[in-house]
Amino acid sequence: xKGEEGHHDHVPVxxxxxxxxxxxxxxxxxxxxxxxxxxxxxxxGGIILDPLMMVIPIDDHMVHRGHGVFDTAxxxxxxxxxxxxxxxxxxLSASKAKISSPFSRETLRAILVQMTAASKCRNGxxxxxxxxxxGDFLLSPxxxxxxxxxxxxxxxxxxxxxxAAGGHPRLREGVRAITSTVxxxxxxxxxxxxxxxxxxxxxxxxxxxxGAYASVWVDGDGGVxxxxxxxxxxxTGGGDLVVPAFDRVLSGCTARRVLALAPRLVDAGxxxxxxxxxxxxxxxxRCAEMMFVGSGLPLLPIVEWDGQPVGDGQVGKIxxxxxxxxxxxxxxxxxxxxxxxxxxx
Length: 345
What we know:
The structure is a single chain. 30% of the residues lie in helices and 21% in strands. It is of the alpha+beta class. The chain has two domains: 27-165, D-amino Acid Aminotransferase, Chain A, domain 1 (2-Layer Sandwich); 175-332, D-amino Acid Aminotransferase, subunit A, domain 2 (D-amino Acid Aminotransferase, Chain A, domain 2), CATH 3.20.10.10. The strands form two sheets. Strands 7, 8, 9, 10, 11, 12, 13 and 14 form an eight-stranded mixed β-sheet that branches.
Protein backbone atom coordinates (compact mmCIF):
# COMPACT_ATOMS: atom_id res chain seq x y z
CA UNK A 1 0.00 0.00 0.00
CA LYS A 2 1.07 3.57 -0.61
CA GLY A 3 1.01 6.23 2.06
CA GLU A 4 1.31 10.01 1.75
CA GLU A 5 3.26 11.49 -1.16
CA GLY A 6 3.39 8.07 -2.85
CA HIS A 7 5.64 6.47 -0.23
CA HIS A 8 5.25 2.74 0.37
CA ASP A 9 4.11 1.78 3.86
CA HIS A 10 5.16 -1.78 3.12
CA VAL A 11 7.60 -2.90 0.44
CA PRO A 12 6.89 -6.42 -0.86
CA VAL A 13 9.66 -9.00 -0.62
CA UNK A 14 9.73 -11.59 -3.41
CA UNK A 15 11.50 -14.76 -2.42
CA UNK A 16 11.16 -16.68 -5.67
CA UNK A 17 11.82 -16.03 -9.32
CA UNK A 18 8.29 -17.11 -10.20
CA UNK A 19 6.86 -14.28 -8.09
CA UNK A 20 9.08 -11.75 -9.82
CA UNK A 21 8.11 -13.09 -13.23
CA UNK A 22 4.46 -12.79 -12.34
CA UNK A 23 4.91 -9.12 -11.37
CA UNK A 24 6.89 -8.47 -14.54
CA UNK A 25 4.15 -10.06 -16.62
CA UNK A 26 1.57 -7.85 -14.92
CA UNK A 27 3.75 -4.82 -15.67
CA UNK A 28 4.11 -5.81 -19.33
CA UNK A 29 0.37 -6.32 -19.68
CA UNK A 30 -0.46 -2.96 -18.09
CA UNK A 31 1.81 -0.86 -20.31
CA UNK A 32 2.32 -0.25 -24.00
CA UNK A 33 6.05 -0.95 -23.81
CA UNK A 34 7.40 -2.39 -27.03
CA UNK A 35 8.07 -6.11 -27.10
CA UNK A 36 11.38 -7.17 -28.59
CA UNK A 37 11.29 -10.35 -30.66
CA UNK A 38 14.77 -11.60 -29.73
CA UNK A 39 17.82 -10.85 -27.60
CA UNK A 40 21.27 -12.41 -27.30
CA UNK A 41 23.24 -12.45 -24.05
CA UNK A 42 26.70 -13.91 -23.63
CA UNK A 43 25.97 -14.07 -19.89
CA UNK A 44 23.17 -16.55 -20.64
CA GLY A 45 25.03 -17.99 -23.60
CA GLY A 46 22.22 -17.94 -26.13
CA ILE A 47 19.27 -16.28 -27.84
CA ILE A 48 16.30 -15.29 -25.68
CA LEU A 49 12.77 -15.05 -27.09
CA ASP A 50 10.82 -14.34 -23.89
CA PRO A 51 10.75 -10.52 -23.32
CA LEU A 52 10.62 -11.05 -19.55
CA MET A 53 14.05 -12.70 -19.66
CA MET A 54 15.74 -9.95 -21.68
CA VAL A 55 17.81 -8.53 -18.84
CA ILE A 56 21.34 -7.32 -18.11
CA PRO A 57 23.05 -7.81 -14.72
CA ILE A 58 22.83 -4.65 -12.63
CA ASP A 59 26.52 -4.95 -11.71
CA ASP A 60 27.55 -4.92 -15.37
CA HIS A 61 30.12 -2.15 -15.82
CA MET A 62 28.13 -0.88 -18.79
CA VAL A 63 25.15 -0.26 -16.50
CA HIS A 64 26.69 1.51 -13.53
CA ARG A 65 29.90 2.96 -15.01
CA GLY A 66 29.05 3.43 -18.69
CA HIS A 67 31.93 1.16 -19.65
CA GLY A 68 30.47 -0.22 -22.84
CA VAL A 69 30.20 0.48 -26.55
CA PHE A 70 27.42 -0.22 -29.03
CA ASP A 71 26.37 -0.05 -32.64
CA THR A 72 23.37 -0.76 -34.81
CA ALA A 73 22.31 -2.03 -38.22
CA UNK A 74 19.12 -1.56 -40.19
CA UNK A 75 16.95 -4.57 -40.99
CA UNK A 76 15.06 -4.07 -44.25
CA UNK A 77 12.94 -6.70 -45.97
CA UNK A 78 14.94 -9.55 -44.46
CA UNK A 79 18.38 -8.05 -45.08
CA UNK A 80 20.79 -6.49 -42.58
CA UNK A 81 22.13 -3.31 -44.16
CA UNK A 82 25.78 -2.32 -43.61
CA UNK A 83 26.17 -4.91 -40.88
CA UNK A 84 29.88 -5.34 -41.56
CA UNK A 85 30.63 -1.60 -41.51
CA UNK A 86 28.82 -1.18 -38.19
CA UNK A 87 30.45 -4.28 -36.73
CA UNK A 88 33.90 -3.01 -37.67
CA UNK A 89 33.12 0.29 -35.95
CA UNK A 90 31.91 -1.56 -32.83
CA UNK A 91 35.22 -3.36 -32.54
CA LEU A 92 37.17 -0.15 -33.12
CA SER A 93 35.17 1.57 -30.37
CA ALA A 94 35.75 -1.41 -28.07
CA SER A 95 39.49 -1.21 -28.66
CA LYS A 96 39.52 2.48 -27.74
CA ALA A 97 37.44 1.73 -24.64
CA LYS A 98 39.83 -1.08 -23.57
CA ILE A 99 37.09 -3.70 -23.89
CA SER A 100 38.03 -7.07 -25.31
CA SER A 101 35.48 -9.13 -27.17
CA PRO A 102 34.43 -12.51 -25.78
CA PHE A 103 34.24 -13.78 -29.37
CA SER A 104 35.96 -13.38 -32.71
CA ARG A 105 34.52 -10.97 -35.25
CA GLU A 106 33.21 -13.88 -37.28
CA THR A 107 31.39 -15.30 -34.26
CA LEU A 108 29.89 -11.92 -33.35
CA ARG A 109 28.58 -11.61 -36.90
CA ALA A 110 27.15 -15.13 -36.87
CA ILE A 111 25.41 -14.48 -33.54
CA LEU A 112 23.76 -11.33 -34.89
CA VAL A 113 22.55 -13.07 -38.04
CA GLN A 114 21.23 -16.09 -36.10
CA MET A 115 19.50 -13.87 -33.54
CA THR A 116 17.76 -11.95 -36.31
CA ALA A 117 16.67 -15.19 -37.97
CA ALA A 118 15.32 -16.55 -34.68
CA SER A 119 13.29 -13.35 -34.18
CA LYS A 120 11.39 -13.90 -37.47
CA CYS A 121 11.48 -10.10 -37.79
CA ARG A 122 12.08 -8.77 -41.30
CA ASN A 123 11.97 -5.01 -40.76
CA GLY A 124 13.40 -2.82 -38.04
CA UNK A 125 16.91 -2.76 -36.64
CA UNK A 126 19.34 -4.62 -34.42
CA UNK A 127 21.45 -3.06 -31.68
CA UNK A 128 24.44 -4.70 -30.05
CA UNK A 129 26.80 -3.92 -27.18
CA UNK A 130 30.23 -4.95 -25.96
CA UNK A 131 30.68 -4.39 -22.23
CA UNK A 132 33.51 -4.72 -19.73
CA UNK A 133 31.08 -7.18 -18.12
CA UNK A 134 29.48 -7.89 -14.75
CA GLY A 135 31.36 -8.50 -11.53
CA ASP A 136 31.13 -5.71 -8.96
CA PHE A 137 30.31 -2.03 -8.42
CA LEU A 138 33.86 -0.70 -8.28
CA LEU A 139 35.33 1.79 -10.73
CA SER A 140 38.13 -0.45 -11.94
CA PRO A 141 37.09 -3.11 -14.46
CA UNK A 142 39.51 -5.60 -12.89
CA UNK A 143 36.66 -7.17 -10.93
CA UNK A 144 34.59 -7.91 -14.03
CA UNK A 145 34.30 -11.65 -14.53
CA UNK A 146 34.49 -11.47 -18.33
CA UNK A 147 33.55 -9.06 -21.14
CA UNK A 148 29.95 -9.39 -22.27
CA UNK A 149 28.14 -9.18 -25.58
CA UNK A 150 24.46 -8.28 -25.79
CA UNK A 151 22.20 -7.72 -28.79
CA UNK A 152 18.51 -7.15 -29.44
CA UNK A 153 16.13 -7.06 -32.40
CA UNK A 154 13.80 -4.06 -32.61
CA UNK A 155 10.83 -4.57 -34.88
CA UNK A 156 9.03 -1.93 -36.88
CA UNK A 157 5.67 -2.17 -38.60
CA UNK A 158 5.41 -2.84 -42.30
CA UNK A 159 4.27 0.76 -42.75
CA UNK A 160 7.27 2.11 -40.87
CA UNK A 161 9.59 -0.18 -42.78
CA UNK A 162 8.16 0.99 -46.10
CA UNK A 163 8.64 4.59 -45.00
CA ALA A 164 12.24 3.91 -44.01
CA ALA A 165 12.94 2.19 -47.31
CA GLY A 166 11.51 5.17 -49.15
CA GLY A 167 13.05 7.84 -46.93
CA HIS A 168 12.02 9.53 -43.69
CA PRO A 169 8.32 10.53 -43.50
CA ARG A 170 9.43 14.18 -43.23
CA LEU A 171 11.65 13.92 -46.29
CA ARG A 172 9.38 16.05 -48.47
CA GLU A 173 8.87 18.85 -45.96
CA GLY A 174 12.17 18.87 -44.08
CA VAL A 175 12.80 19.67 -40.44
CA ARG A 176 14.06 22.42 -38.13
CA ALA A 177 17.41 22.33 -36.35
CA ILE A 178 19.02 24.41 -33.63
CA THR A 179 22.57 24.90 -32.43
CA SER A 180 22.94 23.07 -29.15
CA THR A 181 24.02 24.86 -25.98
CA VAL A 182 24.88 21.50 -24.37
CA UNK A 183 28.69 21.10 -24.31
CA UNK A 184 29.82 18.63 -26.94
CA UNK A 185 32.02 15.66 -26.19
CA UNK A 186 35.78 15.80 -26.35
CA UNK A 187 36.95 14.44 -29.74
CA UNK A 188 38.41 11.31 -28.10
CA UNK A 189 35.00 10.34 -26.71
CA UNK A 190 32.99 11.71 -29.66
CA UNK A 191 34.83 9.38 -32.03
CA UNK A 192 34.00 6.37 -29.83
CA UNK A 193 30.42 5.04 -29.90
CA UNK A 194 30.14 4.44 -26.17
CA UNK A 195 26.96 4.01 -24.14
CA UNK A 196 27.60 7.37 -22.44
CA UNK A 197 25.01 9.37 -24.37
CA UNK A 198 24.03 11.84 -21.65
CA UNK A 199 25.25 14.84 -23.67
CA UNK A 200 23.45 13.47 -26.72
CA UNK A 201 20.21 12.93 -24.80
CA UNK A 202 20.33 16.44 -23.33
CA UNK A 203 21.04 17.95 -26.75
CA UNK A 204 18.04 16.11 -28.22
CA UNK A 205 15.82 17.14 -25.31
CA UNK A 206 16.90 20.76 -25.78
CA UNK A 207 15.94 20.64 -29.46
CA UNK A 208 12.54 19.12 -28.73
CA UNK A 209 11.85 21.70 -26.03
CA UNK A 210 12.55 24.42 -28.59
CA GLY A 211 10.32 22.87 -31.24
CA ALA A 212 13.11 21.51 -33.42
CA TYR A 213 13.70 18.00 -34.72
CA ALA A 214 17.28 17.82 -33.46
CA SER A 215 20.29 19.95 -32.62
CA VAL A 216 23.69 20.55 -34.18
CA TRP A 217 26.93 20.93 -32.25
CA VAL A 218 29.42 23.65 -33.16
CA ASP A 219 32.89 23.20 -31.64
CA GLY A 220 34.95 25.77 -29.77
CA ASP A 221 36.72 26.81 -32.97
CA GLY A 222 33.45 27.57 -34.73
CA GLY A 223 33.37 24.45 -36.85
CA VAL A 224 30.22 22.41 -37.42
CA UNK A 225 30.52 19.03 -35.69
CA UNK A 226 27.51 16.68 -35.71
CA UNK A 227 24.01 16.07 -34.39
CA UNK A 228 23.17 14.08 -31.25
CA UNK A 229 22.68 10.81 -33.16
CA UNK A 230 23.53 11.65 -36.74
CA UNK A 231 26.05 13.42 -38.94
CA UNK A 232 25.25 16.57 -40.89
CA UNK A 233 26.00 17.45 -44.50
CA UNK A 234 25.89 20.63 -46.55
CA UNK A 235 25.65 21.63 -50.20
CA THR A 236 27.41 24.91 -50.92
CA GLY A 237 26.12 27.50 -53.33
CA GLY A 238 28.79 26.34 -55.78
CA GLY A 239 27.58 22.74 -55.70
CA ASP A 240 30.05 21.11 -53.29
CA LEU A 241 28.77 18.40 -50.95
CA VAL A 242 30.60 18.74 -47.64
CA VAL A 243 30.39 16.42 -44.63
CA PRO A 244 32.25 17.75 -41.55
CA ALA A 245 35.53 15.87 -41.19
CA PHE A 246 35.49 12.84 -38.90
CA ASP A 247 38.52 13.88 -36.82
CA ARG A 248 36.36 15.35 -34.03
CA VAL A 249 33.09 13.48 -34.45
CA LEU A 250 31.81 9.95 -34.87
CA SER A 251 32.66 8.41 -38.21
CA GLY A 252 29.13 7.78 -39.46
CA CYS A 253 28.63 4.65 -41.54
CA THR A 254 25.71 6.21 -43.42
CA ALA A 255 27.62 9.47 -43.92
CA ARG A 256 30.51 7.51 -45.39
CA ARG A 257 28.06 5.67 -47.63
CA VAL A 258 26.74 9.03 -48.85
CA LEU A 259 30.29 10.10 -49.66
CA ALA A 260 30.75 6.88 -51.64
CA LEU A 261 27.51 7.24 -53.60
CA ALA A 262 27.49 11.00 -54.21
CA PRO A 263 30.25 11.05 -56.89
CA ARG A 264 27.57 9.74 -59.27
CA LEU A 265 25.99 13.17 -58.99
CA VAL A 266 29.33 14.73 -59.86
CA ASP A 267 29.50 12.56 -62.97
CA ALA A 268 25.96 13.67 -63.82
CA GLY A 269 26.94 17.33 -63.48
CA UNK A 270 24.60 17.90 -60.52
CA UNK A 271 27.39 18.39 -57.98
CA UNK A 272 30.82 19.97 -58.41
CA UNK A 273 32.66 17.96 -55.73
CA UNK A 274 32.18 15.62 -52.77
CA UNK A 275 34.29 15.38 -49.66
CA UNK A 276 34.71 15.33 -45.89
CA UNK A 277 36.25 18.58 -44.71
CA UNK A 278 36.11 21.10 -41.94
CA UNK A 279 33.37 23.70 -42.44
CA UNK A 280 32.78 26.73 -40.23
CA UNK A 281 29.30 27.48 -38.93
CA UNK A 282 29.48 30.84 -40.72
CA UNK A 283 30.12 29.18 -44.07
CA UNK A 284 27.57 26.46 -43.35
CA UNK A 285 24.84 29.03 -42.77
CA ARG A 286 25.38 30.32 -46.31
CA CYS A 287 24.92 26.90 -47.88
CA ALA A 288 22.10 26.05 -50.26
CA GLU A 289 21.16 22.77 -48.54
CA MET A 290 21.67 21.11 -45.17
CA MET A 291 20.72 17.62 -44.03
CA PHE A 292 20.96 15.08 -41.22
CA VAL A 293 22.48 11.72 -42.17
CA GLY A 294 22.19 8.62 -40.00
CA SER A 295 21.23 4.95 -39.93
CA GLY A 296 17.66 5.47 -38.79
CA LEU A 297 16.78 8.24 -41.25
CA PRO A 298 18.79 7.60 -43.49
CA LEU A 299 18.75 11.23 -44.77
CA LEU A 300 16.58 14.11 -43.63
CA PRO A 301 16.69 17.63 -45.14
CA ILE A 302 16.99 20.59 -42.77
CA VAL A 303 15.06 23.61 -44.02
CA GLU A 304 15.53 25.89 -41.00
CA TRP A 305 18.50 26.37 -38.67
CA ASP A 306 18.23 28.57 -35.58
CA GLY A 307 15.10 30.24 -36.94
CA GLN A 308 16.66 31.11 -40.32
CA PRO A 309 15.87 29.37 -43.60
CA VAL A 310 18.49 27.09 -45.10
CA GLY A 311 18.89 28.19 -48.70
CA ASP A 312 15.42 29.03 -49.97
CA GLY A 313 13.81 27.25 -47.02
CA GLN A 314 12.66 24.32 -49.17
CA VAL A 315 13.83 20.74 -49.50
CA GLY A 316 16.61 20.77 -52.08
CA LYS A 317 17.12 18.60 -55.13
CA ILE A 318 20.47 17.26 -53.89
CA UNK A 319 18.95 16.01 -50.65
CA UNK A 320 16.20 14.24 -52.57
CA UNK A 321 18.67 12.72 -55.02
CA UNK A 322 20.94 11.47 -52.21
CA UNK A 323 17.96 10.08 -50.33
CA UNK A 324 16.85 8.15 -53.39
CA UNK A 325 20.34 6.75 -53.87
CA UNK A 326 20.55 5.63 -50.24
CA UNK A 327 17.12 4.01 -50.37
CA UNK A 328 18.03 2.12 -53.53
CA UNK A 329 21.25 1.01 -51.85
CA UNK A 330 19.26 -0.29 -48.87
CA UNK A 331 16.94 -2.20 -51.21
CA UNK A 332 19.45 -3.65 -53.64
CA UNK A 333 23.00 -2.58 -52.77
CA UNK A 334 26.02 -4.82 -52.23
CA UNK A 335 26.43 -4.14 -48.50
CA UNK A 336 23.50 -6.31 -47.38
CA UNK A 337 23.39 -9.60 -45.51
CA UNK A 338 20.50 -11.99 -46.22
CA UNK A 339 19.02 -13.36 -42.98
CA UNK A 340 18.49 -17.16 -43.25
CA UNK A 341 15.07 -17.36 -41.61
CA UNK A 342 14.43 -20.84 -43.01
CA UNK A 343 17.44 -22.18 -41.08
CA UNK A 344 16.39 -20.82 -37.71
CA UNK A 345 15.48 -23.52 -35.21
